[in-house]
UniProtKB/TrEMBL annotation, chain A:
Annotated DUF58 domain residues: 205-350
Name of the protein described by the UniProt record: DUF58 domain-containing protein
Superkingdom of this protein's organism: Archaea
InterPro entries: DUF58, vWFA_dom_sf
TrEMBL record, chain B:
Keywords: Membrane, Transmembrane, Transmembrane helix
Transmembrane segments: 7-24, 30-54, 283-300, 320-337
Source organism of the structure: Zestosphaera tikiterensis
Top-level taxon in the UniProt lineage: Archaea
Stated name of the protein: DUF4350 domain-containing protein
Amino acid sequence: MSSEALTQVSGTQRLTAVLLITAALLVFSVFVNIDFLMPAMALVALIASTRGYAVISYLALSKCEIKTNASVTVGGKPLTYSIEIFNKGLIPIALVEITLNYSQNLRLVKGSKAALLIIPPKSSVTYEVVFNGRVGKHRVGPLKAVVRDPLGLFRSSELELVKAEEVAIQPPAREVMIRKVWTHTRSAGVVRSREPGLGVELYGVREFRPGDDLRRVVWRTLASSNRLSVKEMERETYQSIFFVVEASPQMFYGPYGGTPYEHASEVIASISAYLARRGDLMSLVVATQDGVLTSGKPSRGRNAYVKISKTLSMVPYIADSVDRNLLLKKALKEILNSLPRERNLIFVFTTAGDETYLKGLLEFINKLRSLNNDVYVAIPLTIAYEVRGLPPWAQAIYRVKLYDKVKDELEFARKLVKYRARVIAIGPQYMPETIVRIVEARRS
Amino acid sequence: MKKLKLVSSWVVIGLVVLALIALLEKGPPIAYVFSGASPASPMSFGTYEFYLLVRERHQATAVFRLDDLKLPSNSRCVYVLISPDIPYTLEEGRHVAKALSQCVSYAALIADEWGTSNNVLIALNTSVRVVGDLVLDALRTPYPQAQMRVIGRYENTYEITLDIASEVSGGTPSGFVVNGYVVTGGNAPPIKRDVIYVAAYESVKDNPVYVIGDGSIFLNQVLTSKEGGRYREFALSVVEGLCGGQPNCYVVFDGSHHSGVKASDLLARPQLISNYVKNPQDLFYVITPMISLILHPTFWLPPLASWLNRFTGFIFGNELFYSSALLFAVVLTYYLVKGRFPSTSDFRLPEQSEVELFATSDIRNAVLAGRVKLGKEDFIKLYDMVNSVLVGVAGVELSDEKALQLLSKAVGAEASLKYFKEMNKLYVKVKKRKLLPIVLSWDRRVRKLITQSEEVLKALGTSLQSERGVEYVFLRFAR
């Protein structure tokens, strides 16, 4: 028995009573009557055996084989996390209390945060919990455990059975949302351009005109018919789109699964899934307190969509206040590193703020606009998010009470507009359609 | 790093108990305090300094019982006897002589002012004797200046101040006082003499015996005094002379006839201490053996055991004390046993808390808990909201008569008129601080108006009570 395990097991308040009785019996056996010695010895034996068992159980638990498994999920879907504890020894571990720690932003929907286990020898038990998945990076674990003897006279110190793990949950690309924007674009008649111009798809062959690039001359036609012709390409209609998320604490306020960040993530994921089919160039930059996360250089297709989704899943939830202008500066630096030298469409997802932030945001917008980019600022209206989940009567009172805040946020949007910024001040409704409309309008 | 405890506390306690029993069994230390010129006495009148001085140069020892006087047979021995307090018998003198005769050769230094060592001189077959009278100087003080000649290898003459010295007779004189007096009896008058011999030398069968009629010149207080250097030189010269340059000279100090008192006797009769203390330093040498006695378990353990015995007898004899003692014993045992187990408070492990953050958490929670009270400022907000919707949707203000027409189409003439009047009257009351109409409870009134406003707003295509509420109308205007 290791001496370390001995020091890890301590007596509980229940032991105090037993010790007191034992002490009294021992003293009486010396000073009053020797007959008290037998029960005293019996209690001493009980204390010794329970302590021994607690120490052995602690050792057995510390040597258990642990396997963890977290199901891959997306926001809004269940995240199942299971832990299998295998007792390799011959000693049954009678009473193990476990408790699972996790990010306080996660919500457990199935299973228990804590449990009492009995692990038979050469057997295993599985502890499973289900969280309601929400976009972002979360911590699951550590799983802490303590061991007690069956009478609860002794208790071990906390044992960390499973270390904390990070779980990244990607935003769902809502099929309904994608269908909606497809329908919207189809009804708007947005198709291939079928116009000659710069591109990679062949449009046709025409006669050479002065100024045409000699590399585009069709030599075969020249050789066969002695006519100088050039290949003409179909004008590319792809867009280069940047999504920028300013992940300050305000973006994480709101009902579970319905915060501005989660909504923005879903919108970005759904739109990128749509734009991936359209072959547009896309990139994402998220400015967080811990640094700037990016999906890398602009890319197209499913690859771009996957990269953007993964980046959105790596964003940690923060509650501490941050310098929002600093976040914008970091984001700008990152964008400028990967911005293609063409007219890009940039969507900035942020929340309303004070005058200082307004100034910083305008600087950010103007810098990007000066590089010949189109910048749109999507500002979610806080009340439109936070009112969700309240009963109707409470919504009315809540709206009345927070009318000033609504006015302030609208004022922030108005000021941005006043300084010629393009603003999408909007609630959870209609945001994807609005953004797609902007993208497609620019394409045509 | 955790410290490894090699010996447990219980083992230490056990060893201490064993040590106490062993000390009891062995008995208390027998410590003496000497009053005279004993070689074991570091006090003023002792000769311990002289002993140390000799021991630095030669193999030296001190004996305190004549039976212990066993001398090496392969060395030259020098016997040193300074002012014995107890007179030697002839038998004892012979014992000394016999012991000295075991050595290859021997010499003796006897410094004595009372004549208590004469039987040793007789036994050594010398003609020299300590007369036992008192030599005074010209001023009749007992501190005469003597010219002392050291014989042998380091032959030299020293001028030494004696202190209550005696005349020495016989042998070859080697020390004298000039123009002094001799007092032979208690009340006899001093007799003037030109020369008084205070030291003599005689060699018996090549074994020199050097006798000085004063032992005080070898005392600690003299050797450690400011002028002690001269005396130390003299004392060493005498011993070196007697050793005769032999490398294996063995010097033995005889302390068997010096009177002493047991430290336990001093402890029993503290009034005797003053007899032995001549200066503060002596006090230290008297107290130290007494302290060693006090610390010894034989001094305090038997009385303590006896007291405990009486105390337990008293406790067991008294019911109240007995019960209290039992209780105390139980508590003590409990704490002793409890100390073996580290304790902890056993609570369930803390569960993970979940939070939902809201920018407006306080208001949201208050609304849900029903703690929110609506006031006149909330009425103004409601008025503004309805007004803004009306302006945005129909282009008319709520205070405008056209709004009444619009509302009457939407919610009926009677209801719209009542709502129109109430909203505007209350708005004027709040804004212009009028007394009328009287509002008993703003909370109830605003809640009622919210319900009525919902009807109006619904008719205008928006709502206060649905997720897609009035803010979407405001957003439309903001673009």
